[in-house]
Amino acid sequence: MKKLINSVDSVVTDALTGIAAAHPSLRVDLDNKIIFRASGPRPGKVGLVSGGGSGHEPLHGGFVGYGMLDAACPGEVFTSPVPDQMIEATKGVHGGAGVLHIVKNYTGDVFNFEMAAELCGDEGVEVVSVLVNDDVAVQDSLYTAGRRGTGATLFVEKIAGALAETGASLADVARTGREVNERSRSFGVALTPCTVPAAGKPTFELTESEIELGIGIHGEPGRTRAAHAEAREIVRVAMDAINDDLPLSGDLLVLVNGMGGTPLMELYIAYAEVAAYLKEKGATAVRSLVGNYVTSLDMQGFSVTTCSLTEELTRLWDARVETPGLRWGR
Amino acid sequence: MKKLINSVDSVVTDALTGIAAAHPSLRVDLDNKIIFRASGPRPGKVGLVSGGGSGHEPLHGGFVGYGMLDAACPGEVFTSPVPDQMIEATKGVHGGAGVLHIVKNYTGDVFNFEMAAELCGDEGVEVVSVLVNDDVAVQDSLYTAGRRGTGATLFVEKIAGALAETGASLADVARTGREVNERSRSFGVALTPCTVPAAGKPTFELTESEIELGIGIHGEPGRTRAAHAEAREIVRVAMDAINDDLPLSGDLLVLVNGMGGTPLMELYIAYAEVAAYLKEKGATAVRSLVGNYVTSLDMQGFSVTTCSLTEELTRLWDARVETPGLRWGR
Amino acid sequence: MDTSFFVAWMEEIATAVQAQRDHLTQLDAAIGDADHGSNLDRGFGEVRRALADSPPETPGSTLMLAGSTLIRKVGGASGPLYGTAFRQMGKSLGDVPDVSLAELSAALDAALAGVQKLGAAVEGDKTMVDALAPAVRALAQAVQEGVKPEDALSAVAAAAQEGARATIPLQARKGRASYLGSRSAGHEDPGAASTALVLSALRTAGFRTW
Amino acid sequence: MDTSFFVAWMEEIATAVQAQRDHLTQLDAAIGDADHGSNLDRGFGEVRRALADSPPETPGSTLMLAGSTLIRKVGGASGPLYGTAFRQMGKSLGDVPDVSLAELSAALDAALAGVQKLGAAVEGDKTMVDALAPAVRALAQAVQEGVKPEDALSAVAAAAQEGARATIPLQARKGRASYLGSRSAGHEDPGAASTALVLSALRTAGFRTW
Ligand SMILES: Nc1ncnc2c1ncn2[C@@H]1O[C@H](COP(=O)(O)OP(=O)(O)O)[C@@H](O)[C@H]1O
Ligand SMILES: Nc1ncnc2c1ncn2[C@@H]1O[C@H](COP(=O)(O)OP(=O)(O)O)[C@@H](O)[C@H]1O
Ligand SMILES: [Mg+2]
Ligand SMILES: [Mg+2]
Ligand SMILES: [Mg+2]
Ligand SMILES: [Mg+2]
């Protein structure tokens, strides 16, 4: 393992130190490992807190700022954060209008956010959670821990965040967050594994001619291993999986997301195939993002996330956002 | 080699197709391989054209838009574009005030841009070139092709682009572009090689315990091979090389740039060390960027670029920019 | 079994988990996300520190402190699960200064109930429950049969180890490994493996303090 | 040497470069950026197409078209350099329908001058000049000694190959390889290697058309 780190044990703290130094718009609580907006909570605005294991940067810390999150809680690499962090974060962003927890559906994240929400409730801070579970590679059944939360997390954070800025109520912000999740689907593919610093070696092994289909964002192998193929074919597998679950039509928001080690050039090649696929189906990507947004350390691969837009969701997507990872609008 | 591509020969065209599909703000001329602003040339504004080999995305196509470039010419992977492209691009952005060519100092780029500039001059379009050569790993002497242009290209494109938007003359835009270059220095480090699609295998070999110091952005090995070390030490080597060439002091603009395959988390770890180093020297990064901006395909590694700011340069850096790769201001 | 026994238990767990850290992480790499060893090592290291910083007065408060520390420091699925397990044991023991085998049995029963309430896993789902549940049964039986404490704890350890090994052929239905579907079969569940370590440490603690 | 000879030359180059594409790219990977083979393969493929599309009437126009095509299609350092070389040869040949060995020698001299004017490389800088310059000298000598055309072209090829091989120990002072400093020594220069292919194709073209 060759990484640009000081030590396996200090990766999260060292990265937070760098984030603090790089972004005057953020305030980093190094003791509690929380990334806040430097401006503090805005009275009357619903606070948005998300978090999860580290290693997915820019998610979530890179999405703290106007129009998105109020705070992010990074755990150790691929390990959900702990309730203490979430409680501190929740109290720190509470502006009197309650706090929304945006939780990716993983057993650990769910357990820890639930505990935190309960304890915050005891202390008089109203907390509502939105669970993100967009990954169609996992069947949501009694035989699994349910669908994983992946790329749609960014959509929920952006759109719920935009609504919160308008002064909407906690119930409304949560309802819209859930609506975004329900309208979103994802599928991921790995060309290579990633290496968790503490593990020191790749999470799985693949030959030069194999890929993993239906991966999550924690370096786990996918549902099936397949032969490497042209971008066109790989994208088709991903898009078919999404389309089989929720037929693609109308106006879409589309994310072609890199897993951390994929060159942007290849992501654009994949996006071209996604656009061609959508055309076939009569759907249109009226909004899109191509880049590394929800990553798995140094993994090479990509995921596609689609969200079926409404007029309101489009307006909220377009609304001003000012975070290290996403920035647009005025 | 395992890449998300359709074929080795179509990577540039396929990526351009994706860029065209993803960014309505851009117009992509697929035949000539040029990325233009969709809005066309603005009468009276100096046009900015840059370009170079592909494989450095988002450079340059991702920097086309308000406040930066008017057009970008991507060549084949790591191969400078051809004069025809540059001539088309130059004519296409000419708004009557002349055109600035921003050229990274590589033999091929220089040759091809020179030929294009000469032919454009023949056709009555005034062209001035700014040569970027910021890489301190190469000695600028009779015994080399001169210093390479690397991370500072982004600074020149942003700052010259901001000045051009104000209606400044070609001579002024060029002068400011050169000033940025003269005030900038870079140094790059590779943890792994990259794989050029047409070559099909990594450009060099490194063991688990070796790194390359003083690399460029084309997958070439560096000036020296060294033992892998902590981020702190590696950053110190890079910063010392910069500081020995142009002592660091005062207000700086700092880019910690990923080579394409480095997780953002590691870039922030490196940034923390850069900030600590600057503090030691009594200098401050008053503006910074951390991320993948000037890449070498899937290489793992990073580069640091510093630019000693003036008030005017800071103002131009802060000015509104709206491109796929950089966006801020109002 | 007095407070020093339970403190010794925590120390033995910390030692065993540290020694098996990479092994646990590699088990997790195969069907999870490669962090189980570092999660528990970090967690039980913190437990050891917490117990040294504020030495507990009863067996129950030892386990409550351990559980809260795990919840506060570990994260992931295993932090809340192990944390809950120890806290439920602690609650079950109450203030008793010296714990009988029957009381320990009831406490382990409470631990299992807590884990199942939180995680909703049943035996056969390929989780830590597959190591914990048979261990709980083994202790209950030992109590009923009135065997010596040493032998009872040996039976607990053996049952947990056997339960962990038996997860190998199973297909996971809870936690991250469930994402793999049938590909999760053929690998030992990391949480079951760590539970076997935790329960084997109970016996080692006995050897050390008795 | 008439137009068909020069068209045959271009075809022979295209064939040789295609066959050696990966070899040239690997030479470039060692001290450059791993594109020389694909650059030239793309370029001479285009030259072949251009000549088929608009068959030239004179040796000079054959080389002018080849040179312009290389400049228009290749990019990098080698596109303008090879393009300039062929264009300068073309200019030097003018309208003559049948080129004598002496005229060819003057044309190659013009090619070298063009390359050196553009690239400012001298012999020993580890560039294509190290293959081209000795070949130019060999042809001049052959013309002076009045040897048969076949032998003259063989001497050209041999001198270029020898020149290319002699770049191996050199430290590069021009082009990308110069960035490597002393690490560029020990590798053959890709442009010198391709120049040897280009000039060897001259001889093959002779065998084919004579
Ligand atoms: N719902 C559940 N019930 C019981 N145990 C579970 C459950 N989900 C996960 N586990 C246990 O947790 C272990 C994984 O722990 P760990 O790797 O530390 O957390 P994470 O899965 O969050 O990375 C699994 O091997 C399994 O034994
Ligand atoms: N200044 C120069 N003069 C002569 N030849 C040069 C010069 N610079 C580079 N070359 C030649 O060009 C070759 C590299 O060509 P190529 O790889 O196609 O272009 P690039 O270096 O732009 O990738 C070198 O091996 C060398 O022979
Ligand atoms: Mg985990
Ligand atoms: Mg090149
Ligand atoms: Mg795990
Ligand atoms: Mg080259």
CATH topology of the largest domain in chain A: Rossmann fold
Order of helices and strands of chain C: HHHHHHHH
Shape of chain C: globular
Our Rg estimate of chain C from Cα atoms comes to 16 Å
Count of the domains of chain C:
1
Total number of helices of chain A:
8
Helix content of chain A: 25-40%
Treating each run of at least 4 consecutive H or I residues as one helix, how many helices of chain C? 8
Strand order in the sheet with the most strands of chain A? 1-2-4-3-5-6
Give a short account of the largest sheet of chain C.
none
Number of domains of chain A: 2
3D architecture notes:
The complex is a heterotetramer, with two copies of chain A (330 residues) and two copies of chain C (210 residues). Chain A is α/β, with parallel strands linked by helices and 330 residues long. Chain A has helices at residues 11-22, 83-93, 107-122, 152-165, 170-182, 231-245, 264-281, 311-318; strands at residues 26-29, 34-37, 47-54, 71-77, 99-104, 127-132, 184-190, 210-213, 224-227, 250-258, 283-291, 301-308, 321-322, 327-328. In chain A, α4 (152-165) runs antiparallel to α5 and α6 (231-245) crosses α7. The longest helix of chain A has 18 residues, at 264-281. The mean pLDDT of chain A is 97. Chain C has a single domain (3-209), classed as Alpha Horseshoe (Serine Threonine Protein Phosphatase 5, Tetratricopeptide repeat), CATH 1.25.40. In chain C, α1 (3-31) packs antiparallel against α2 (36-53). The radius of gyration of chain C is 16 Å and the shape is globular. The N and C termini of chain C lie close together (9 Å). At the A-B interface, α1, α6, α7, β11 and β14 of A face α1, α6, α7, β11 and β14 of B. The complex binds adenosine-5'-diphosphate (ADP) (2 copies) and magnesium ion (4 copies). One adenosine-5'-diphosphate sits between chains C (28, 32-33, 35-36, 39, 76-78, 81, 115, 119-121, 127-129, 174-176, 189-192) and A (79-80, 107-108). Chains C, D: InterPro entries: DhaK_L_YcgS, DhaL_dom, DhaL_dom_sf, Dihydroxyacetone_Kinase.
